[in-house]
Amino acid sequence: MLKEYMTVREIAGPLILVEGVEGAKYNELVEVEFPDGRVGLGNVLEVEEELVLIQSFEATSGLNVAGTKVRFTGRGLELPVSRDILGRVFDGLGRPIDDGPRIIPDMKLDINGNPINPYARDYPTDFIQTGISAIDGLNPLVRGQKLPIFSGAGLPHNRLAAQIARQAGVLGREEEFAVVFAAMGITFEEADFFIQEFRNTAAMERAVLFINLADDPAIERIATPRMALTAAEYLAFELDMHVLVILTDMTYYCEALREISAARKEVPGRRGYPGYMYTDLATIYERAGRIKGAKGSITQIPVLSMPDDDKTHPIPDLTGYITEGQIILSRDLHRRGVYPPIDVLPSLSRLKEKGIGPGKTREDHSPLSNQLFSAYARGKEAKELAVILGEAALSEEDKLFVQFSDAFEERFITQGEYENRTIEDTLSIGWELLKILPRSELKRVREEHIRKYMDGEAV
Amino acid sequence: MEGKGVVVKVAGPLVVARDLPDPKMYDLVKVGKDRLMGEIIELRGNLASIQVYEETAGLGPGDEVISTGEPLSVELGPGLLTSIYDGVQRPLDVIQARFGNYIARGVEVPGLSRERRWPFAPVAKRGDEVGPGDVLGTVPETEVITHKIMVPPGVQGRISEIREGEFTVDEVIAVVETPQGEVPLTMVQRWPVRRPRPYQRKVSPYEPLVTGQRVVDTFFPITKGGTACVPGPFGSGKTVLQHAIAKWANAQIVVFVGCGERGNEMTDVLLEFPELTDPYSGKPLMLRTVLIANTSNMPVAAREASVYTGITIAEYYRDMGYHVALQADSTSRWAEALREISGRLEEMPGEEGYPAYLGTRLASFYERAGRVVCLGSDMREGSVTAIGSVSPPGGDLSEPVTQATLRVVKVFWGLEDRLAFARHFPAINWLNSYSLYLDKVEEYWSAEVEMDYPELREEAMAILQREAELQEVVRLIGIEALSDQERMIMETAKSLREDFLQQNAFDDADAFTSLRKQYRLLRLILTYHRQAMKELEAGRPVEELIDLPVQEEIARAKFIPEEELERFDELEKRIVEQMSRRGTDVLA
Ligand SMILES: Nc1ncnc2c1ncn2[C@@H]1O[C@H](COP(=O)(O)OP(=O)(O)OP(=O)(O)O)[C@@H](O)[C@H]1O
Ligand SMILES: [Mg+2]
């Protein structure tokens, strides 16, 4: 029998202060029984000899000082797992919400996990073909990478994430893979879009969903990504699967973090977010990766909407400091009807160098992507100049670069939501577009590659 | 001196204990039944605040706390090289072998192996009078580094016994008779990480640390014993630059501290360094490298300690007379750890929540760098060069960590995302970066490389600065507003940027450039420029001087192998020929 206390002294926002408690431990899971009999979960944030500060995962409305019971469980928050979690839908705290049977656990895992020993890691090197040129060609995703999508309100990040989940695969290999999806604070429609998407593509049987919606308790979101990653670790490292984890929307997660910090009256960091947000986010994002000797892997695609489209806002900023690159969506491209509206210049995949090239994708991949980058950058720059000084101010060369950058957006970046391009397709479109430019300007690609891939000469 | 206290409060990495017997600031303690490592950081009445280096989940009031009575220390001796440690010197490879793929708690593993035997060859002999820093003998620690076993600070006397042969680090290899009695010495020294190791005196650094990175060595050089910082927003290239320096700098020892950054970046080093050969020794880079990895998801308190662990190890090799590069990526994460602990202590917050002592802590860290005359009677010199990344939120350099760092370091390599987006790497802004060692290094260049190196650098810098002004004009009025001379300056500046400043760290042929080749490359570009200016003077239009075939050769000159630098002579000749022959062609 768990020790039960009815000695709540204070309730403030999501925080509950209990006194006269003996033997409570830091980070311990607690059950909070509401006066109406409902039972919620909470977590010990701070313990002193007499006082325990608890963070509730449930909205605290309906709690009172006199009628609330608190029970200490002696363990951390856990997720029961078994192979049967595949195909199931859970709430943000890992409780089934799909009318399916109870999970008979293989094991129960602490959702906080432990940091991977850096020595145990294996470097991500397997190129994942997403079928999306702006990603595969220029900012390729690699198995075990954490590559977020920086988006903004109203931009099609969910459609893009779903397209990646649908199309992602490693070249020339059939391996067991799974998708773990965590929704934090998104609307019913958005979540339903994913669920339908998984159902329609029959991907549901290899998906695990954790859903915390906009009208679910905000503080529950603190646990949701950790639930998802615990499930992912189980699938990847116990069941040898390649797992793609989609976390959307991390912005709402961070807001929940801020809410708790504010309730604790901590000294706020930038824009009111707690000073430890970097470390906190790292304990989520660093759970991606590969482990030496393990067959499975975890690839993460966190999605976040940038408040005011501002990349320097603490949420995208700290995320960018932890993840291995970022895919940035552009409102401007979106307005012009470009899908996917990926702004390739500030986007980046840091693991690309080791994931592409001969034997992995193609020998010309890296130089070609550098050439496309710089030509597109130059074209865009010339375009800006033309806006100020007029077309006439451009040199003949610059005009060609402008033409190139338009064509690049139209034919390379733009593609259908259900269009799945092979990496060869992507690279040939790139070479095709380079024909617009004078050869002498193609300084980043080798002559032999030009002959082989642009002119189609047999070598 | 052992005794027990009891936990009264746990808040994240901070634990408060009561009734610890004889607690001293910075003493190491063991907390709870798992004996988690921690360090006393505040004393108030009978309460001691402890920062715990491991995850504190499951700790609670009533758990016991044991004091070791000793400050947090590292073990210094053979076996450091090629190791990978966490922030408090626990060997991560050993931990993985014993406890699996995740970091376990309460692990007690010594920093240096107790089983491994090292061949010790005495250089001192019985009867010698020795003092701190004197070399007793050597151990071939790796194929490239001879480890000197030194008399530890505080020991002075006559050698009464010294042994030759194979020993483990804790076996006695010599005995020194001191006025206080006999002192048995082993191959390991323990040293508290927060205390700088002693030396005879500092000398001011004069010799460049050649990093093989052109923009660094030629434009903003660092010296052996100098200090530098690399601030920049995420993705601007701090880590790639730090790794490049760790790989190619002519330091004899590299201590790389991954402080609150990515796990994969450490793996990258671990996988790459044993494969890469050091351009100086021809042997794998790992043989001269020590890694400290306290990644962002590992406990913050150990992150705070990691930079001290790193610099103490660096000082130890300096004491042997080596030139050591100590690199910390990123010092901002260290500062954030400091901020977090300070917040939990409820200290009065300063700017952006950082404690008021942030500046002094940073200063005293960088102060441990320098070139010194080491302890020991042979007056050998060694150095620690400290290079720290800074990760300013939003890339805003006015934030406290960047500002406090700039007050103490002598070299500033400012990375910019604007350059990174344009794939100009290293994305070091050449207009606002600086090196306060320039004068010293220029003297060295003139003596060791070529007399006119400083002059060339100055000319190149002036062209780049002029370009920035001219770009402004073009932006406002258009390219027609420029004179032929000015268009030539733009052309040369472009060549300087693309053919000299830009350097691809991932291209084997481009990753490293020797000082001599840097000089030749710079001279090549400026030969073109000077010749062009002459031709302009003689009335040739600028159109005839750009888009020449030779420019393409200049662009490819960075790939000329180090062994074939004489090819630059030919190239220079061709430039002059082509530019003047063109003229004759046109006339004819
Ligand atoms: N010298 C270089 N040559 C080629 N590419 C480079 C170079 N420097 C940086 N890059 C590119 O920039 C990317 C980001 O660099 P890096 O990881 O060093 O950034 P960072 O400043 O350390 O970012 P963070 O603060 O997030 O750690 C690299 O993955 C690489 O693609
Ligand atoms: Mg970095």
General description of the model:
The complex is a heterodimer of chains A (459) and B (588). In chain A, the strands form four sheets. In chain A, strands 9, 11, 14, 16, 17, 18, 19, 20, 21 and 22 form a ten-stranded mixed beta sheet that branches. In chain A, strands 1-7-4-5-6-3-2 form a seven-stranded antiparallel beta sheet, with no helix packed on it. Chain A is built from 13 helices and 22 strands. The model of chain A has no long low-confidence stretch (mean pLDDT 92). Chain A has helices at residues 133-138, 157-167, 188-200, 224-238, 250-263, 277-285, 314-322, 331-335, 352-355, 365-389, 396-413, 423-434, 447-454; strands at 4-5, 8-12, 15-19, 29-33, 39-48, 51-56, 69-72, 78-81, 88-91, 107-110, 121-122, 127-129, 141-142, 149-151, 169-170, 177-186, 207-213, 242-248, 289-291, 297-305, 325-328, 348-349. Chain A has 459 residues and is α/β, with parallel strands linked by helices. Chain A has three domains: 3-76, Beta Barrel (Thrombin, subunit H); 79-355, 3-Layer(aba) Sandwich (Rossmann fold), CATH 3.40.50; 365-454, no CATH class. Helix content of chain A is 32%, strand content 22%. In chain B, helix 4 links the parallel strand 20 (253-259) and strand 21 (289-294). In chain B, strands 8, 18, 19, 20, 21, 22, 23, 24, 25 and 26 form a ten-stranded mixed beta sheet that branches. In chain B, strands 1-2-5-4-3-6 form a six-stranded antiparallel β-barrel. Chain B is built from 15 helices and 26 strands. Chain B has four domains: 3-71, Elongation Factor Tu (Ef-tu), domain 3, CATH 2.40.30; 113-187, OB fold (Dihydrolipoamide Acetyltransferase, E2P) (Beta Barrel), CATH 2.40.50.100; 201-431, Rossmann fold (3-Layer(aba) Sandwich), CATH 3.40.50.300; 453-580, Bovine Mitochondrial F1-ATPase, ATP Synthase Beta Chain, Chain D, domain3. Chain B is α+β, with helices and mostly antiparallel strands. The chains are: A alpha/beta (459), B alpha+beta (588). The interface between A and B is large, with 72 and 70 residues. Strand 5 (39-48) of chain A pairs antiparallel with strand 1 of chain B, so a sheet runs across the interface. Magnesium ion is lined by residues 238-239, 261, 329 of chain B.
